[in-house]
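ok here's ABC transporter ATP-binding protein:
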Amino acid sequence: MANPLIKITDIKRNFVLGDEIVYVLKGIDLEINKGEYVALMGPSGSGKSTLMNLLGCLDTPTSGTYILNGKDVSKMKDDELAEIRNKEIGFVFQTFNLLPRTTALDNVALPMIYAGYSKSERTARAEEVLTQVNLADRMDHHPNQLSGGQRQRVAVARALVNKPSIILADEPTGNLDSKTSVEIMNLFNEIHANGNTVILVTHEEEIAEYAHRIIRLRDGLIESDTRK
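and the structure:
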């Protein structure tokens, strides 16, 4: 069996609030293989957002180990984590997080600037992924000229642009109506079918149903882990 893409062992995350320590993650063990399509679910306070931040290298654990693609990221410093995030992880957020004064094309090309690609390489790749998400005719539009669904497609294209190991989507349909949500989730199905590993954080059952594996958290622990 090949090594898992993600291997988390006894991950704990505590936060100090004034005089008290809040124990958010209480010892999580988790393996995710390349090409899986996983939904992380759980009520408010279950620890799913904290776990997502750890998976996305936006935060480091209090204790435990996190091996991502063969690298131990649990002990890395901020600048090393930033590099891992840019290379290994494509983020899609509920609020799109696009630069308002920048075209769709330039928004998508942005992660490639940090990765050190030339302008011609950036433009070619950004055009390629915008075409992939059916926005070939909207490349020169600014976010305020696009619908919510189109903005999320731009965000998805930006997540794909550096060919990351993982697409990490946090409530990606949270700001969209039902019809547009279905379109965006169909897009994630296509991305997964192309061989990408997709991790989806959601509180909506119907969105989680798109995934092939549902991990439910409660009170900082994994309550259930079901594969379809």
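+1. The first strand starts at residue 6 and ends at 17.
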